[in-house]
Write a structure and sequence with these properties.
Largest sheet: 7 strands, mixed
Helix content: 10-25%
Distance between the termini: 46 Å
EC number: 2.3.1.-
Strand content: 25-35%
Strand order of the largest sheet: 3-6-9-14-17-19-20
Pfam family, one: Mac
Keywords: Acyltransferase, Repeat, Transferase
Radius of gyration: 16 Å
InterPro entries: Hexapep, Hexapep_transf_CS, LacA-like, Mac_dom, Trimer_LpxA-like_sf
Organism: Rhodococcus oryzae
C-alpha cells in the first residue's frame, strides 16, 4: 500500500494523482466496463464481476447497470440489498451498506472532500475522504445524495432528491435539501 493510499484511508489530505491510486482506479474501471456491458439475462456474470470488484456483497444483493465507483474494494454491501440504475459510489473512504437496503436510481454516496479554506491546497488537487454508513432496512429514494461522513440509521426512509449532509437517526422519514427529519416511523 502506498503512502497516498494510506493517507486517504486515514482521512488525511492526499493526492489522487498518485500512480498507485490511478492504477487501482483503472483496474476498477476495467471491471466496471465488464459489469456495465453485460446483457439483460447475464445476472450470474454480473454477480461474478461484483464479487471481484467489491470488498464484499451479501447473498441476494444485486446492482443494476450502469454502476460507477472509484475503487470498489472499499464498498461493503450486506445481504438482500439492491442498488438501482446509475448508482455512483465514490469510495475514497469505506462505504458500508447494510442488509435489506433499497437504493433508488441515480443515487450518489460520496466520500471525497476538498479543502474549503485552503485555496492553494485545493488548487494543487489535495483532497481527503470520510466514510458513509447506511444501516439495515433503509430505503433511499431516487436521486438521493449522501455526503461524506454521514451515517444513516436502521429502518430509515430518505425521500427522493434529498441531499443528506448530516447523520440521520434510526426509524425516521427524512427529506429535503438539506435533508431533515420529517417524522418518526413506527
Amino acid at each position: 500500500m502506498g503512502e497516498q493510499r494510506d493517507r486517504m484511508l486515514r482521512g488525511e489530505l492526499y493526492r489522487d494523482d498518485d500512480a498507485d491510486l490511478v492504477a487501482e482506479r483503472k483496474s476498477c474501471q476495467r471491471l466496471l466496463d465488464q459489469f456495465n456491458a453485460t446483457g439483460a439475462d447475464e445476472d450470474s456474470l454480473r454477480h461474478g464481476v461484483l464479487k471481484r470488484l467489491l470488498g464484499s456483497i451479501g447473498e441476494g444483493s444485486w446492482i443494476m447497470p450502469r454502476f460507477q465507483c472509484d475503487y470498489g474494494s472499499l464498498i461493503t454491501i450486506g445481504s438482500n440489498s439492491f442498488l438501482n440504475y446509475d448508482a455512483i459510489l465514490m469510495d475514497c473512504a469505506p462505504i458500508t451498506i447494510g442488509n435489506d437496503v433499497s437504493i433508488g436510481p441515480r443515487a450518489q454516496l460520496l466520500t471525497a472532500l476538498h479543502p474549503m479554506e485552503d485555496h492553494e491546497a485545493r488548487r494543487q488537487r489535495w483532497e481527503s475522504a470520510a466514510p458513509v454508513v447506511i444501516g439495515d432496512n433503509v430505503w433511499l429514494g431516487g436521486g438521493v445524495i449522501v455526503c461524506p461522513g454521514v451515517t444513516i440509521g436502521d429502518d430509515v426512509v430518505i425521500g427522493a432528491g434529498s441531499v443528506v449532509t448530516k447523520d440521520v437517526p434510526p426509524r425516521v422519514f427524512a427529506a429535503g435539501n438539506p435533508c431533515r427529519v420529517i417524522r418518526e416511523l413506527s
